[in-house]
Amino acid sequence: SYHLHTQKFGRKIRYQEVVHSTQILAHEWAREGIEEGALVVAEQQEAGRGRLGRKWYSPSHTGVWMSLILRPSILLTDASHLTLLASLGVKQGIERVTGLPIQIKWPNDLLIHGKKICGILTELRGEQDQVHYVIIGIGINVNTPKESWPEEIRRIATSLAIELGGPVHRASLIAAILEELEEVYQQYMNQGFTKIKAQWEKSSGILGKSIVARTAQGTYTGIAEQLTGQGALLLRTDQGLIPIHSADILLKE
Ligand code: BTN
Q1: CA distances from 68 to 73, 163, 226 (A)
Q2: Distance from Cα 21 to the centre of ligand 1, integer Å
Q3: Which one, of 67, 40, 50, 65, lies nearest residue 142 by Cα?
Q4: How confident is the prediction along the chain (253 residues), in pLDDT tens digits per residue?
Q5: Ligand 1 — pocket residues by CB below 6 A?
Q6: Which atom of ligand 1 lies at the shortest distance from residue 21's CA?
């Protein structure tokens, strides 16, 4: 069912048929002072954006394209915690509704059988060393058919409907995700990152695996060992342990 059992998340919703990007509307709304938990949802994005300047395919009525506004009182240096807790909450929401096993690829790609089902884009504004607001952009390929992607995307992406062999009710999925997200967020605000980190490490498919991390500083190959307290990925390489703060990750084998 899509009754929403949250206190704040999704209590205020701006729903629009077509947008450039839900991120843009969410930034506008946040700047106007809208309260935490406000949500922008669209049926279609004409200029959906992904990480690292990439494009995000957002065909009409087939996915969940939404942006959640948060106002945590945390330091800018801790902002990557939000990305990690978002991937955890979204994973739990999708699993609750579909029963499909979801793998988290650091920092925040969600995969099914190695193919991307969901991407999360965290954008924030700060004031001095404090976070002012955060926009968590969530894109989920729900009922997206293969044909809507170009060849190179088909090889790396999938949708819930493709995996299940039938459509998923998007409003129920949104409700479940908002509930799970609010819970991990409250847990983080009350108890800090330690518990989230442990849960993330347990449910990520990446730890213990051989990976290649492409960063702005260079490419590193090694075994993903654990998260640091800041949310960086610790990589065991031939040169020792290297913390990866921002990268594109390739799972080997
Ligand atoms: C990525 O994996 O690169 C992140 C993709 C994030 C896509 C979502 S869809 C809703 C929100 N609006 C956007 O333009 N992007 C995010």
Answers
A1: 16, 26, 28
A2: 8
A3: 65
A4: 579 999 999 999 999 999 999 999 999 999 999 999 999 999 999 999 999 899 999 999 999 999 999 999 999 999 999 999 999 999 999 999 999 999 999 988 999 999 999 999 999 999 999 999 999 999 999 999 999 999 999 999 999 999 999 999 999 999 999 999 999 999 999 999 999 999 999 988 889 999 999 998 899 999 999 999 999 999 999 999 999 998 999 988 6
A5: 21-23, 45, 48-51, 54, 56, 58, 65-67, 109, 119-121, 137-139
A6: 14
- Architecture per CATH, 210-251: Roll (2.30)
- Measured distance CA(147)–CA(24) in Å, rounded: 27
**Segment 30-33 long-range contacts (CB within 8 Å, at least 24 positions apart):** 30/69, 30/125, 30/133, 30/135
- The residue whose CB lies within 8 Å of the most ligand 1 atoms, and thus the one to mutate among 49, 109, 115, 141, is 49
Domain 13-203: top CATH class: alpha beta
Q: What is the residue extent of each domain of the chain?
A: 13-203, 210-251
Query: What's the CA-to-centroid distance between 23 and ligand 1, angstroms?
Result: 8
- How many angstroms is it from 121 CA to the middle of ligand 1? 5
Q: If you ran DSSP here, which 8-state letter would residue 145 be given? A: -
